[in-house]
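Listing S7. Sequence submitted for prediction.
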Amino acid sequence: MASSDQTSRKYLVLKPEEASLLDLFHILFSGEIESRKFVKCLKVKEKFLERRGIIFFSVVVQKVLQFTAKPMSWFGSKFELWLNLVSSNNNFGVLLLNLVQCKMIMPDRESATFLSVVGYLDKRVELDRSIKPGDGRYYGALSAMASKIAYENKAFIKTIVEDHWKMELLGAYDFWNGYQQKSTTQAFMFHDKNVDPDMIVVAFRGTEIFDAGCMVY
């Protein structure tokens, strides 16, 4: 969390991951907060005293998110796999029958049929046929749909862009996230030749539902 004025001569930077339980009490009851390890500030002591309740709440929420990040990620992965397991076997009844007969079909996370939790919440993939290129609503509708499928794997994105939208996929990428120190930022690019002039669209995936670690940043 950071606060600064327009000239950046005053700032307050907090690192919740370095804050201890004692530090949390210092936020509420001590005016000497700048001496704590998890704080870096310059000329904002008055501002801090005025807003210590908000800062305390913010740090506590971020500590909770950090604590629950791994369990939430594990649960999200298993829940997503379960949804695809049921779908791969047509329905829950068929899944049980296939399990008894040792014919259960396991989903492939890299296949074009594997869906994220977001994909199951909203299974639309087709563009609104009532909105034609040149319509003022076209760009917004295309951007919204591209943002939705950005949550899916590369095979799924390729199928939708090329086979359903009849556009050219230029690439799907995993970008380095400096905060998390791993490649957790996904985006894809595609070429839309249906508009004049034609255009290249870049769509980034937002925060995944069960990614509490990303929410902290």
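Caption to Listing S7: primary sequence and predicted structure tokens for the chain studied. DSSP finds eight helices and six strands in the chain. The helical segments are 21-29, 45-50, 52-88, 92-100, 117-121, 138-149, 154-164, 212-216.
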